Hints:
The chain is mainly α. Helices cover 45% and strands 7% of the residues. It is built from seven helices and four strands. Helix 1 packs across helix 2. It is elongated.
Amino acid sequence: MELQEELSRTGRSREVLELGQVLDTGKRKRHVPYSVSETRLEEALENLCERILDYSVHAERKGSLRYAKGQSQTMATLKGLVQKGVKVDLGIPLELWDEPSVEVTFLKKQCETMLEEFEDVVGDWYFHHQDQPLQRFLCEGHVLPATETACLQETWTGKEITDEQEKVEGEEEAEAEAEMTKAAVNPTHDPEDL
């Protein structure tokens, strides 16, 4: 997705590259639109895996959607508590909270390994198969086994939550309901109010 996004961003360029000028032989320059040049692909791939470090683990999400750019709801809540003066101990210093997690760093390493292993496939897609989405061509066609492609269909709507979050929310609702029922059955009044 990162590569497709970067190529979409640079694909609108009207720049034309002049290639092949050799002074001694007098050969003519060849004009290549930047949007279909090898230079564009190389530039897009240059820091691709480094950008994975911009991702965070969103524990409140399921599946592959756990990895997304931006701060997770959990971390935002924890930082809010710290700003209100609540002591929060995650086992790491506060200044390291925004550093990439071990999971994200491992994801970056997997990105580097995948790019190295499938460099020719990416090049083949770029020069011959851009009519197909890169995700389908690369991931479904070459990287993932057919039984593991369900993650490619996941989309974030903002309503997905983890099973653990469902359990906690269910317990909270049950506790609130029990409190209301208890109050209705056993009303407590101050004798002076009567």
